[in-house]
Specification:
Nucleotidyltransferase, domain 5; alpha/beta
């Protein structure tokens, strides 16, 4: 299944997609967000162009697991996306993806400008990779006869 992951932000929306086998992820160009309507239309266009079958919006929970204002904004955006088209939309915990993305880019000696351009896409890729690992683990449990799979 081709899954499109989003790192929703006030200024930019980072994007990453996986291949149909759910083994490789690719960072896509970010979307400059001017409004939720504009951004939702742009995400819908990308999802159609990339033949995505599922859209995953990162849910920025607080470190204690509670939801704050950023999570509420991400939920509203996910609902807006879901209302636009036939592609299923879900949400996944994205705690620390932006911090981890920044750290990865620093480790690569990326300039400040490059980090700013790539951080959101890398964060979306980290979110997607985590989701794919969870899906593989769930399939493994099902193969061994234990646990339920939420698909």
């Amino acid at each position: 299944m081709r899954i499109l992951a989003l790192d929703y932000g006030d200024k930019r929306i980072g994007l990453a997609i996986c291949d149909v086998t759910e083994t490789a992820t690719r960072v896509l160009p970010f979307i400059a967000r001017r409004s939720d309507d504009q951004a939702a239309a742009a995400v819908t266009a990308v999802s159609a162009e990339e033949a995505a079958e599922l859209i995953v919006v990162g849910l920025p929970l607080n470190m204690d697991g509670t939801e704050g204002a950023a999570a509420a904004r991400a939920r509203r955006f996910a609902a807006r996306l879901a209302s636009l088209g036939p592609i299923a939309v879900t949400m996944a915990d994205e705690r620390r993806t932006t911090v981890d993305a920044e750290r990865m880019l620093l480790d690569l000696d990326a300039t400040r400008a490059r980090r700013r351009r790539q951080r959101d896409g890398v964060a979306a890729a980290l979110l997607l990779q985590s989701l794919l690992e969870d899906r593989r683990a769930a399939r493994g449990r099902a193969t061994r006869g234990g646990g339920d799979i939420d698909e």
